[in-house]
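[stage:ingest] chain + small molecule (protoporphyrin IX containing FE)
[stage:ingest] validated
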Amino acid sequence: MASRAEKIPPHVRPDLVWDGCFDAFTSEGDDPFVAVTRFHEGPGVFWATDASYGRPGWVATRMDLISEVMIDYENFTAERHGMIADLVGENVRLNPIEIDPPAHHGFRRILNPHFTPKALRELDEAVRKSASELVDRFAENGGCEFVSEFAIPYPSYVFLDLMDMPRDKLADFIGWEDKIMRAPDPMERVGAARAVYAYLKAHREKQLEHAGNPLLESMVHGEVEGRELSYLESMGMFYVLYVGGLDTVYSTLGWTLRHLATHPELQQRLRDEPELIPQAVEEFTRAFSVVVTHRQLARDHVFHGVEMKKGEEIHLPLSLANRDPAVFDNPHEVDIDRKPRHIAFGTGTHNCLGVHLAKREIRIVVEEFLSRFNNIRIKDGGAYRYHTGRTFGVDYLPLTWDI
Ligand code: HEM
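[stage:predict] done
[stage:export] tokens:
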């Protein structure tokens, strides 16, 4: 293990060093979104000796600085060569998230038309069907363990529909997802990622002759810079659509249902006025901004007076942007009337491709639960479990209700 001195390069100003572990610090107490905002008491950017998986790095703590890093493509790169390649055993990059502009635009242009609100309207019925089929399984029990019985399978269901894959693959996808996200043995995680990749690869091959839908057609035969996508560019898109919408959606749903289960008056207001649900979803995604993304220094750079070196990582906990007291009054209060301008889905060129899909998925779940169950609450005196890290997610949320 690296010593403290090895974890603090000489150019890092001593007043900016925080000798701690981001994950441990944000897991203190009952609510990680409150725990993380203790960083607002310190500088706008600091050096953590354990920023992520034991590695040191910069952490930005305010909306303005986080947004600035996300749109400064010259100094902060999103290109992470080798990470996914090592995982799946092929020289692939998440496309377009690991590609900087200007090349990024060509790939994003291929995907954009399939993720507009209009294009997604066709998927609405399938998403609602997925939600209600899952709820049917436990509706009569008077309760469920929300995470394993709903939040984990649901985005996989939606992914299968999006990709025109058979719904009976659900069990396999949940098994793989569970291992990728939770297996303690790294080899098991690698094995599951490779199994997903192999399945996606076989599915892609089937689309070459006859694509199951316009999105798939674009992902196999789309054109960039006047030529067809290469095999690896195409696989990078298949894989990004798989990973982009799983962890994020399931995590946001966990916090959303936990909030509703502990706020009966809000449940009732949304039951009485369901037309408010879309704006409530907007506020839930602000208050429960689950993503901690990052960039790498593309070159040596002085950022607001802070000397940074090429190759260093800078972590961007979006919860710190979206609960920044300089931007939002009472940032910890979930106020569905505030209509927030937030960056839970990122900002700049890499802003979330699936933002409209994600909001639809969350809205449909809130509608489904509130219309079918009364007095939703947490079982066992409110016990729940969560994790922090790259995404803040709920691991265990036992719910009960009156039918
Ligand atoms: C509540 C759910 C979601 C949240 C909070 C979320 C959040 C984000 C964020 C913060 C980014 C920007 C990351 C960065 O700049 O480093 C992003 C990018 C992206 N997301 Fe989402 N996401 C969600 C759901 C989805 C879904 C359902 C999909 C599936 C289509 C998806 C696909 C993507 C893709 C492909 C990108 C990369 C876009 C690019 O680089 O141009 N996301 N998302």
